[in-house]
Specification:
Layout lengths: L1 E2 L3 H13 L8 E4 L6 H7 L5 E4 L5 H11 L4 E2 L12 H10 L5 E9 L10 E2 L6 E4 L2 H5 L10 H11 L4 E12 L5 H4 L1 H19 L2
Parallel strand pairs: 1-2, 2-3, 5-8
Antiparallel strand pairs: 4-7, 5-6, 5-7
Helix pairs in contact: 1-2, 6-8
Amino acid sequence: MCVENGARYLQEALDSIALNAMPDMEVLILDGDSTDDTVAIARRHALAPRILRQRAKGHPQALNQSLTEARGTWVAHIDCDDVWPAGRMRALWAAAEAGAGEWIFGQAVNCDAVLRPLGVPQPARLITASLLHHSIADRIGPFRTDITHGSNIDWAARASHAGIRFAPIDALVLQRRIHDSNLGVTGRPKAMRDLFQILRDHKARSGS
């Protein structure tokens, strides 16, 4: 988890990880110099997460650091304001053990601030809706730091171009909270510019 001033929803996110705990699962939190109760909440949680300071500011930089610091063969991400439904990790892990692919992803549903669904679950190649084999990071390369929004979308597009084996599963694996503090909401004009840049770069890679 990469977080900065995420105390508002952090307890719920950590509880959802605990609900999905697996043997030998490491929980790693990269904190971006939070000034709220983020670190205190994380420290007193029963998960006993390993808490590190982000070496560089920004979500893409933090994602790159998370992949460097994580020690497991398989890696999962969660945003501090989202929730993993019960059974999420078991469903993804079953596909991983069966050799289904290197990037296992399930369905996500957008929810309001109190987790009421805003639509129906949809397949999502978001890293927060996925279980990733750690080795694919070297083949894809780092998350882009020249954009603020959509770095995970760009990473998934580059993964496809690199021949990473994707494997969808028919299970809800992420409740994605939409609220007034989402980065994509507070910085919508910049988000749109970044997404158009990602689309242009993807088309250039694919030659279309």
